[in-house]
Known about the structure:
This protein is of the alpha/beta class. It is about 45% helix and about 10% strand.
Amino acid sequence: MASNELDSHIPVFRGAGHLLRLIADLVRRPRRRECPEPVRHRGVAQGREGLPVLCLVGGGDHTQLAKGISYFLSHADPRRVPHVLHDLKGESTPADPESVEAVRHTLERLAQGFALSVNGNDGRVRFRRFGLVNWLMQTGAGGGPHYPGGLEGNDHSLLQGLREREFRRRRLFGLLRSPETELTVDGNVPWWVWLFAVHVFPLAWFRVRRGLGREYRWLLNQPYLAPRDPGTFIGFAERLTAPHHQVEDPEQLRKLMVNAFLEDLRGAFRRRIWRPRTARRTAYCVALLDGTAAGNCGYALMQAVIDVRNETGAFDPLLVIGCGAEPPAAGSQVRADWGHSSLWELNDRLYGGWRDTFLHTGRARNRAPWYLPVTVPELMPPSQEEYELTRRLEVGQDARLRIPEPPLWARRAVSVAVACGVTVALLGAGGLVLRGEAAYRQAHCGLSRFADDAGTLRTAETGECIGVSRHGFTFHSPDPALNETLAKISEQNGRADAAHRAAPERPFITLIHLSALLSSTGKSSAQLAYGREALQGAASAQSRQLRSTGSSEPILRIFPANAGSGMRFGTRVVEMLEVLKRQDPSIVGVTGLDQSRQATNRTIRKLTEVGLPMVATTLSADSLVRQSPMYFQVSPQNSREAEVAAAYAAHVTETTGKNKKKQVRVIGSADPSDTYSKTLSADVATRFRARGFTVEMVSYTPPPAPGVDPVSDAPGAGAVGQRTCSYSGLVFFAGRSEDFETLLSGINESCNSAPPLLIGGDDVARLAADAERRTHYPGIPYDFLDFTLGSARCDGTSELYAEMSRLFPEECAKVPSSSLDGHAALGFDAVKLYINAVKQLREEAAGMPLTPPAVWHAISGVHGDEALDGASGIISFGGDVDRQVPLDKLLSVQHIDARGRPTQAGFCGRVGGRQQAAWCPKWEPEKGG
């Protein structure tokens, strides 16, 4: 709009430019602080903040003057100044112009004007507090909401009215309660969903809203009308309803309404960095009251505004401009507050003079500093000779009100860009977090970083889950029975923690049971059985120990650990264990350890570096004891196994006449990493030659892992089995149980009716312990070496199997077969060896700390009267501090007949008071014995 078109709507009078500049100075909001600009003394801002009450005395032209100012504010650049023009003289005036109802009605019209969208999204104000007060004051009055509470003597109707008011203000509740919604969802959602959505949820929401809503809390904390009387919100709200408020102090009621109105404005303009809209409010709100006179509520409203400002001390962003025909009557309080009429003259020093006066006297708590009265000269008609010149000089230059632009960071485009940027950043960060969490889960066996076991578990390259389980993690095992065993150990660990808290003076130790096949992919439950049985034996020993209550009886925890198939990741698990050992000093040793391979040797050496003693359960390779002085085992070595096998073969040859030529074919694995097979083959060849047998060595290639080349050019175990059909001597198998099963398959295909004489090493016991797999090849009898006496029963005669019947009753049906491999018994004895060592330490040196070296030293002293009479035989290290293998450890020969039934062919070694077979090697004497 051109300047001449704009200023044509603004009244022309002498000094009009001064008035326009005065209003412009008052409505422009500073970047920092609020109006007026403070006076600084020694760098410190002095004086209070506030906007004056501008009183214009315009004679009979006051209405035209008010409309001109409204036009001036409406066409500000770059946006409209939020303002409301309210005509006081055009309203029906109550009998008392200063009545509460008159002030309420005026404030209501002003609030409605400031809430209009014409002020723009950044200029509109929501009047929550005044809206609540205004609604309460109209409740029960003529034309207002019906409230019979005063007649009924209860507040139910008022609460219901408040609730309905809140529901009307919320679109969601209106949508839920609309007839269209009811017809849409009728029969399509459960009745209880509809009941919750339409009744329960809104009522619960209103109860929370009434306690936490800003306007409700404000109403009980504002200073007028003693809101804590009678002490509840609904009680004070009832005081504000009609006709109850008619007995309240009118002045206090006016101040309450004005304070609510101003507080809503304060909240809308309060600067907050997280509310950029408040920084975009660069112009104050203006209330234009036309027709201010003694006959209406104009002066009463102005006085209430000033009184609230003085009493609260809070700044409010409202410029009140009153336009009247005449000044207040002489002698009135308002006229006295205005000061002498000589100070009302319109000039360019009005703002500066008022500011100086206000900054020095604004805290005087009287009304005078707030008033800024101005006498406006008579308006010029267009026909007046000086009109055009005055319009150009006075109005033309100041007709365009320019308000400040908001700060760059607060502008809407920037805010939208920042919001979009933040959203993108959050989405990106969320994506990175989710990606990182997915990567973490993939690297930590599918566990989140908040899972208890995540820190000690890793996903290996083969997909196996390796590490230490402290809180019942099952390593994704496919065997339900193994998962149940791990859960039982976790439950017993919880009991151990509780027992330690109840009796902290008792020894408290933790053992790590390190296995090789807790999560092997592609393995059947039957193939994983031996790992489960060893854990069940360890769990049984733990359970028995938890029932012990003596002061020297240790409280035991067991943490299962998985090193992957073939123990290939054992060293990585030990690295995790090293960190865990620093965090948990109760860890004193390791049990378990599977399969005598090169990876097992590396694991033993790594455990020695960490300083943890080891008690292996089923390992038998001769080279293991050379890996570490801290290594012990409860099973016999391959050298003893070979000696017993040779003695048994010689006995069979002498007593049955079979294999008169004394020939033996030793079949071993061609895998160079299989230490067990390599050392057992060599030991068997040596021992058999010593007994006069002719030895032939044959190798087979075990099946390679997917994507891995075969370890040699030797034939597979099945082909080797077929070639044994023509062999007339004894065949000794020194490989793994799964390969022995393949060997049997080859024999079954070629010579099922006349199989060769077969003896298997101790690993074959894993096949024999599985009743179903054992009977796959009927008609092929064989013998194998076993670390136990043979089949056992859950009949209470053995402390191991009595305990297993209590912990794992479903296993009892399998025990006659599963006990053949001895894994449960060996796992049980390995744990008991630690328990006895700790008890011995506590009894002999009660003050000695239970450190891994101390426990290792105690284990090495197990012999003679201190020997362990275990489930797998007597364990004694012979009194030799360098001995790491039990002396004359039990070995039995088990025979599987053509129907797959096991029987004992004899046993060798120390087993309580029982006598070994006559053909067995002689016992080795203990030192000092």
